[in-house]
Design brief:
Chain lengths: 647, 254
């Protein structure tokens, strides 16, 4: 019998009552509505225009709200959702292979290593099918078969084919769909678009979020924007590791600023290390490039059985001298085990000295068998653009030589804590997409990020935000000329001036690299208590050094990318400390969080369901003070919690 | 591994203390495995160390899909390699001792913001004028309700692969945006979902394109040659057909 984790009065997850499969339907049927004439009088700010932000802005605009959408990019179409390659899951069961809403729900809960909230995940699986319908109606050119119907492929952690895709650029095609829907609302005047604007703070008035402070990145002007609700769709924080597959500008600033204003941060230590990325080539490296998980449908991972073979040409190593370690260890799922397991297995063989390539931090992903079986043309049709991308970066041809790959930081399951309605612990402040912690537990399955972003934006927020806004219909316009706005604006200006006036000797980039190294070494693929404690101290020292010796060129009143970066890195440093706190506190291994002290005999993650089956929601208590932990117990009504096995 | 390439960079600087001029920089120890943008990162770190203004250039995903990076490198948009964005260009394609000239994308409709950064929001306004299907969230029928022939869907995809970087405009002697606009017109005109509004769409998008100050297309086809996603000029021919058909139809109904 598991110990009950005490309910925290500050955390109300607002899970609707009733059967799991009926919660969302009943919720939608009973949630308060805002009448059309009132929607016109309500302002909503959306920060970020990736899949979650663009779909939310478009959908709320269509409903008749006054929407202001903010992006720091020059265009909403540039958001990092665009880089997703492999696909988007949906429980359509077009393949007649036994898929269903329940199976997608179950796979996601299991894939997340039983650390996600059941009700949210079930809703995600329910709305998944409508996403595909919506995208096709917008003109998203998904892959089709010869009968003209939609094609599917498999992804890790599942035994059905439920992944819809658009060659190797599903993210770009889905984002263009959402961007077009957003552009249509801009044209119709329901959404006002603020490009090249970065949110630097949220404004809380009498306990409710009432707006944001944003910097115009072209002029440096600090602007106040008020609204009845604010939605953060600002993505994940993988760049805290410096090297990741995230785009260069991805950052934690919006989420972190919200956290400092009262929004709890959920499970910050849950980061996803993606198993198939192009390895690091040198210390000038600025980012890492992902090779889609879909490659594991046909590519086989291996390393030499003996360390002394590692310098040989891979084609000179005979079959019997190769270790296809995933197929050997996980025969049921083979090369398609979930990401956390595949990454750890790659790390283990490299730690054993059997890694390949110049750095010995790489494994082979080999297509020779698939090319023999299906022919080069078929493999080219499936993965041609990925093979080309690999060749551009490495100068090697993967049709001839096996790819060399290694795990890299890719996604963050943690994020702002939200309730069932996607509202953070600050009333009126919402978080959607990767920015929230909600659906993936301790590990996200492939092709589920696009699904969650679009589910939140198209089909969840448009319903749930009405629950709060229905109580705001008599509030009237929110004035930005109040004390709270002035104070927040002054805080922002003061911090910008401080950054510009330190006048130290070290570049922003150099601090970011150092932070990344601490995080990767001590809070990366494997963690332990001692390392995490050291990391916390090192990060505190780094923070002091940053604020006394960073050099930020230029002024505030101009286009100044170094200043933007400095602000973001300062926030990453603060977040890094919280991540280590969370990782230290979570005395178990689950999903992407692997504590070396907690593993089974054969090196698998060992959960502690008795003591650790909760969401860790951290409250900011001031600079220099330790954050306060709130626990949301996870109760599993439908899925039986068990040791995850892919063998 | 070569770690000691020496390069001379002639870079367009505009804004801050620079009125608009080429400035020459020397860079040692360039590694052949660096990407072109990582080489510029190294330059900027050097400039910052010397308390000089770093060179402003735009970039984000660094894997050839977001369309943020630009640059005219030795006279060519996104540099010398075919079907490659600047961020995917690697230094192994350069030799020790080379001089590289780096400029922003130049076009009246892409005003320079600073150094190598230009304002491409005119592209957004072209899309806003009609580059979409009028469908609200929740209005869609089942995704498999309308089968689409595989080749047709593939052709729509080829057009939809445009990343909106603006290289086509930079490559065109007239700074025309026809390849960009025609890619969107084609993407939607080739799909049954976009069919209903195809006439209205092409008329409105072309009108907006003209309003933004882009030049006329004179079939030079440099756009196709420089497009990092190798979008075909066949799309321009399709736009022209769509435009003529739509114009005739609107004259008849008027």
């Amino acid at each position: 019998m598991a110990k009950a984790i005490a309910l925290d009065t500050k955390l109300d997850s607002k899970i609707p009552p009733g059967e799991m499969s009926e919660k969302w339907t009943k919720y939608k049927g009973s949630v308060p509505l805002v009448a059309p004439h009132n929607k016109r009088r309500i302002d909503v700010i959306i920060v970020g225009t990736g899949l979650a932000g663009a779909s939310a802005a478009a959908s709320l605009g269509e409903l008749g709200y006054n929407v202001k959408a903010f992006t720091f990019h020059d265009s909403p179409r540039r958001a990092h959702s665009i880089a997703a390659q492999g696909g988007i899951n949906a429980a359509k069961n077009y393949r007649n292979d036994g898929d269903s809403v329940y199976r997608l729900f179950y796979d996601t809960i299991k894939g997340g290593d039983y650390r996600a909230r059941e009700s949210n995940v079930h809703r995600l699986a329910e709305v998944s099918t409508a996403i595909i319908d919506q995208c096709v109606a917008q003109g998203v050119p998904f892959a089709r078969d010869y009968g003209g119907l939609l094609d599917n492929r498999s992804f890790g952690g599942t035994q059905v084919s439920r992944t819809f895709y658009a060659r190797g650029q599903t993210g770009q095609q889905l984002l263009i769909g959402a961007y077009q829907a957003l552009s249509r609302q801009v044209h119709l005047g329901t959404v006002k678009l603020y490009n090249r604007h970065e949110m630097l703070d949220v404004v809380v008035v009498d306990g409710k979020c009432r707006g944001i402070i944003a910097r115009n990145l072209l002029t440096g002007e600090i602007e106040r924007h008020s609204a009845h609700a604010v939605v953060l769709c600002t993505g994940g924080y993988g760049n805290v590791f410096y090297l990741s597959t995230n785009a260069m500008m991805c950052n934690t600033t919006a989420a972190w600023r919200a956290h400092r204003r009262g929004a709890f941060f959920g499970n910050p230590c849950y980061t996803q290390i993606h198993p198939t990325c192009i390895p690091v080539s040198g210390d000038y490296q600025s980012k890492l490039t992902l090779m889609s998980e879909s490659l594991r449908n046909d590519g086989r991972c291996w390393v030499p059985k003996k360390a002394e073979d590692c310098n040989k040409h891979p084609r000179d190593i005979p079959e019997e001298a190769r270790d296809y370690y995933l197929e050997r260890r996980y025969p049921a799922f083979g090369n398609l085990v979930p990401r956390d397991i595949a990454s750890r297995a790659a790390k283990q063989v490299c730690d054993e000295g059997r890694g390949v390539g110049t750095t010995k931090l790489a494994v082979y992903l080999d297509f020779a068998d698939a090319i023999k079986r299906f022919g080069r043309d078929t493999i080219e049709a499936r993965y041609g653009n990925l093979f080309e991308m690999y060749e551009k970066i490495t100068g090697e041809n993967p049709y001839e030589m096996p790819m060399r790959i290694y795990p890299a930081v890719h996604y963050t399951m943690g994020g702002l804590w939200v309730d069932y309605e996607l509202m953070t612990s600050v009333p009126g402040l919402y978080a959607a997409g990767e920015a929230n912690f909600s659906d993936h537990g301790a590990n996200r399955l492939g092709a589920s990020a696009l699904m969650q972003g679009l589910a939140d934006g198209y089909f969840v927020l448009p319903y749930t935000i009405g629950s709060y806004l229905s109580k705001e219909i008599s509030t009237g316009a929110i004035s930005p000329n109040t004390e709270a706005f002035e104070a927040a604006e002054n805080d922002v200006k003061e911090r910008l001036n401080k950054l510009l006036n330190i006048g130290g000797k070290q570049s922003v980039e150099s601090f970011h690299r150092r932070l990344g190294k601490i995080m990767w070494d001590k809070c990366g693929m494997a963690r332990n208590a001692e390392g995490l404690k050291q990391a916390i101290q090192e990060i505190r020292d780094l923070r002091k050094e940053f604020w006394s010796d960073v050099f930020v060129p230029g002024t505030n009143n101009e286009y100044n990318p170094e200043l933007e970066k400095a602000w973001r890195v300062a926030d990453f440093i603060e977040l890094g400390e919280l991540m280590c706190f969370d990782a230290l506190n979570r005395e178990e291994s689950c999903g992407g969080h692997f504590r070396e002290e907690f593993q089974t005999e054969d090196g698998e993650a060992q959960r502690d369901d008795e003591n650790m089956k909760f969401v860790a929601a951290w409250e900011f208590k001031g600079d220099g003070a330790e954050p306060e932990l709130h626990k949301e117990p996870l109760e599993y009504e439908v899925v039986k919690v068990s040791q995850r096995s892919y063998k | 591994m070569s770690n000691n390439m020496r390069l001379t960079l002639k870079i367009w600087r505009q804004g801050g203390k620079y009125k608009g001029e080429f400035v020459t920089y020397k860079l040692d120890n360039v590694n052949e495995h660096m990407s072109f943008l990582e080489m510029l990162d190294v330059l900027n770190e050097q400039l910052i160390a010397n308390r000089e203004e770093p060179v402003a250039f735009e970039h984000d995903c660094r894997e050839g899909i977001c369309g943020t990076c630009s640059l005219v490198i030795d006279g060519r948009a996104h540099g010398p390699m075919k079907g490659t964005t600047t961020c995917q260009l690697h230094m192994r394609h350069y030799k020790d001792g080379e001089t590289i000239v780096i400029e922003p994308f130049r076009a009246k409709a892409f005003p320079v913001i600073r150094d190598l950064v230009v304002d491409r929001s005119s592209f957004d306004r072209i899309i806003q004028s009609g580059g979409y299907v009028n469908v609200n969230t929740g209005q869609a029928q089942d995704a498999n309700a309308i089968p689409i022939e595989k080749d047709q869907a593939g052709e729509a995809f080829d057009a939809a692969a445009c990343i909106g970087c603006g290289a086509c405009v930079a490559a065109c002697p007239n700074a025309s945006a026809m390849l960009f606009t025609s890619a969107k017109v084609s993407h939607l005109a080739l799909l049954p979902q976009g069919m209903v509004e195809r006439k209205k769409r092409v008329l409105e998008m072309v009108a907006q394109m003209d309003k933004e100050g882009f030049g006329k297309c004179s079939n030079v086809t440099a756009c196709e040659a420089e497009c990092p996603k190798e979008i075909s000029v066949g799309n321009i021919a399709r736009l022209n057909r769509e435009y003529i058909a739509a114009s005739l139809a609107s004259e008849t109904t008027n």
